[in-house]
């Protein structure tokens, strides 16, 4: 089973069409440093997609993923659900059946108020923090995070490894800590570098690392990186900053794949 990072950027992405900072220049010069908005896919017996950012279609084409068997949504912010229209076309005209989907009931309500009756093409199982669903031999548990109303993260248990995907969160609620302690992989919000504009809703680099240390996780993957909100920081500078952690802290990139047994 393999987990693919489809996108690793925060709400802005790197580069932005209207920005000329040194982070955007790094990404223009070397495509490896480009970051589309945040999503991951777990590919095994079935393909599980987590989030639907604006670039979803090009991300799936890039990774040659032509099938989605179940869709998990963290929350209804633009950078995570802008491609719902693409999923609707896929469900209605290709699958010709509703797309099995998992999200919180708050997120479902928000989608319904914004997009109308999404249940015409989505077969939604609402999930609460701490609840687990089983899909294609994988157990997925909803994790409460600190972000917007009803936002979830997901703990993915493939039997061989436990991996938490928590792209948008401030300091984690204490009651979720037991669930996440000692897991093999933590994919965590590292939106800000130095100054944190939204300390209740996102993490900054040092907090991300501190959280992983407190939870004693195997490997921390930094994701949802804004790179140029506030003081710009290049990927090469982050690579230097994480060097002392000797592989226990890794910088996620678009297209990075990790094996989950
Ligand atoms: Zn920039
Ligand atoms: Zn986000």
TrEMBL record:
Residues 35-224 form the Metallo-beta-lactamase domain. It comes from the Bacteria. InterPro entries: Metallo-B-lactamas, RibonucZ/Hydroxyglut_hydro. Pfam families: Lactamase_B_2. This is MBL fold metallo-hydrolase. The lineage of its organism: Bacteria, Pseudomonadati, Thermodesulfobacteriota, Syntrophobacteria, Syntrophobacterales.
């Amino acid at each position: 089973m393999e987990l693919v990072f489809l996108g690793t950027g925060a709400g802005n992405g790197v580069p932005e069409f209207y920005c000329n900072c040194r982070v955007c220049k790094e990404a223009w010069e070397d495509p490896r440093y480009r970051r589309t908005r945040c999503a991951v896919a777990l590919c095994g017996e079935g393909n599980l997609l987590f989030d639907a950012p604006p670039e979803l279609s090009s991300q799936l084409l890039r990774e040659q993923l032509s099938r989605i068997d179940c869709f998990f949504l963290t929350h209804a912010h633009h950078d995570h659900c802008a491609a719902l229209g693409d999923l609707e076309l896929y469900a209605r005209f290709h699958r010709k059946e509703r797309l099995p989907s998992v999200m919180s009931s708050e997120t479902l309500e928000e989608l319904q108020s914004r997009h109308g009756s999404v249940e015409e093409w989505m077969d939604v199982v609402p999930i609460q923090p701490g609840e687990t669903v089983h899909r294609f031999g994988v157990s997925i548990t909803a994790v409460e995070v600190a972000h917007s109303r009803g936002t979830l993260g997901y703990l993915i248990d493939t039997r061989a490894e436990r991996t938490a995907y928590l792209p948008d969160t401030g300091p984690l609620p204490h009651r979720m800590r037991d669930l996440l302690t000692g897991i093999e992989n933590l994919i965590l919000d590292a939106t800000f570098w130095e100054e944190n504009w939204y300390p209740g809703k996102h993490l900054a680099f040092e907090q991300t690392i501190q959280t992983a240390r407190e939870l004693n996780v195997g490997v921390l993957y930094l994701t949802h990186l804004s790179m140029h909100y506030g003081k710009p920081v290049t990927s090469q500078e982050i690579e230097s900053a994480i060097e002392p952690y000797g592989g226990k802290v890794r910088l996620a990139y678009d297209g990075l794949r990790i094996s989950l047994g």
